[in-house]
Amino acid sequence: MEKNDLIKVLEWRNDLRIRQNMFNERKISLVEHLEWYHNTCQDSSIRNLIYTVDQIATGFISFSKMDQKNGTCFWGFYVGNETAPKGIGYIMGYLGIDYAINQLKMRKINGEVLSNNIQSIKFHERLGFVREGLFSEHYLKNGNYQDVIRFALFQDQWNLLKDKIKEEINRNGFNFC
């Protein structure tokens, strides 16, 4: 992610379609967004990426709390472009995981999902993540405490699954090398 991506990411992040599934669903001001960007650029445990299709910004992936000693991180993502082809999020997830494992040298990727976000739960499971924990009534959202599901994907697990996932992507009509 670069400075010229900031306005697009802020638009995506403030879109109700994205916000309603985030832990923090309030609108973010430009000042807050610029401060967030500045802070993440200074933090070596964070890597923010923009996913593009045909040079059009399509989605956002973030790796945070990267711990090089233990080879662990957390990830977050969303497809920002509403006109993106169906299935592009799956490709984005595949590439993001592969990047974290092979480029960032992570051996374990963690994800946390609000229990009412069924689409994200299915997404994680489809990519090979396993449920590692449940934090009951853990996060206050809209006046109600919601459960948070912790997911994990290990490097060795990914290495066993990635070719199968790539084949599935190709069967679904994407020419994915």
Provide an overview of this structure:
Helices cover 38% and strands 32% of the residues. It is an alpha+beta fold and 177 residues long. The protein has a 6-stranded mixed beta sheet, with helices on both faces. Helix 4 (88-102) packs antiparallel against helix 6. The two termini are 24 Å apart.
What descriptors fit this protein?
177 residues, alpha+beta, 6-stranded mixed sheet, 6 helices, 6 strands, 38% helix, 32% strand
Strand content: 25-35%
Tell me the number of strands.
Answer: 6
Q: State mean pLDDT (0 to 100 scale).
A: 93
* Individual helix count: 6
In spatial order, strands of the major sheet run: 1-2-3-4-6-5
SSE string, helix = H, strand = E? HHHEEEHEHEEH
Flag low-confidence runs: none
Main sheet makeup: 6 strands, mixed
Tell me the structural class. Answer: alpha+beta
Helix share, percent: 25-40%
How far is it from the N-terminal to the C-terminal residue, by CA?
Answer: 24 Å
Gross morphology is globular
List the helices and strands and how they pair.
Layout lengths: L5 H9 L1 H4 L10 H13 L4 E7 L2 E12 L4 E8 L8 H15 L5 E7 L3 H9 L3 E12 L2 E11 H17 L6
Parallel strand pairs: 3-4
Antiparallel strand pairs: 1-2, 2-3, 4-6, 5-6
Helix pairs in contact: 4-6
In short:
With 177 residues, the protein is of the alpha+beta class. Helix content is 38%, strand content 32%.
